[in-house]
Structures are given as structure tokens and as C-alpha cells.
Specification:
alpha+beta, 5 strands, 2 domains, 5-stranded mixed barrel
Length: about 150
């Protein structure tokens, strides 16, 4: 059997393979199994154990590692502290900005910070305030602000 011929190195190889597999198919599950295999290899390197005992040690460490991993990993579906990351345009919905260029033929421009955004809406003169009502990719949907 390969475990008996390679000794503790079999666990180091298995741990490395699992860690590389985690990089190839991320999901934070193989990471914990890989770490359990590496720790099993370290234990087997320091203490001469039968391969059957090594497998039991790996199984126990794998269960413990996965439970610890689930405990320290963020919960799926948990609200982010940056909900508009990679969706900047949606962050502007409901806000009011001044047109940088008039909306003519349905399109115009507005400057927000150091960025110029394309806007779509009814024809409005430059310098007027518009409210963002929606976003379509990098284009903001606007309507004029009365008053």
C-alpha cells in the first residue's frame, strides 16, 4: 500500500494535493482537509503509527478542522459591509446631481466625484439638477428635479 511505502510523506503529498485542489476549485472545504492531512503527516513523522491509526487520526482531524473552518468562515448570505462593491451605479439611485452636459436626444452626462457618467432621461439643460432613478450597467437613468 502507498501509505506504508511513503510513510508520513504520503500525508504531506495528500495535504499538498488538497490545498492545490482548493485553489483550482475554491469553496473553503478542501482547505481544511488539506490542513488535516498536513497535521496528520506531522504527527506520523514524530510518532511511529500504524497506517490504520494514521487514517483514524486524519478522519478525526478532518472533522475538527471542518468544524473550526465553518465556525470562523463568514456565514453565506450575510450582509456585506460594502453592498455596492462592483455595482457603483446602483449606489447613486435616489441621489441628486447636477448635469455636466445637457440631456439631448435622451442622453447626457453628469460628473460624480472624478468620474463622468452617461445619463439617460428626458431632455434637460446643463446645470440642472437630476435625480437618479435607476442604473443600467454604467448608464444612470435620471429625471429632472423640480424647483
Amino acid at each position: 500500500m502507498l501509505l506504508t511505502h511513503l510513510g508520513p510523506w504520503a500525508w504531506f503529498v495528500l495535504g499538498g494535493v488538497l490545498l492545490v485542489a482548493e485553489i483550482a476549485a475554491p469553496g473553503a472545504f478542501l482547505l481544511w482537509l488539506g490542513l488535516a492531512a498536513l497535521v496528520t503527516g506531522a504527527i506520523a513523522y514524530g510518532i511511529a503509527l500504524a497506517w490504520q491509526v494514521e487514517v483514524l487520526v486524519f478522519a478525526a482531524l478532518a472533522v475538527v478542522a471542518v468544524l473550526i473552518g465553518r465556525r470562523i468562515s463568514p456565514a453565506p448570505g450575510k450582509a456585506s459591509d460594502r453592498p455596492f462593491l462592483n455595482r457603483r451605479a446602483e449606489e447613486f439611485v435616489g441621489r441628486v446631481f447636477t448635469l455636466d452636459a445637457p440631456i439631448m436626444g435622451g442622453t447626457g452626462r453628469v460628473r460624480i466625484g472624478d468620474t463622468v457618467w452617461r445619463v439617460e432621461g428626458p431632455d434637460v439643460a446643463a446645470g440642472r439638477d437630476v435625480r437618479v432613478t435607476g442604473a443600467d450597467g454604467a448608464t444612470l437613468k435620471v429625471e429632472p428635479v423640480e424647483g
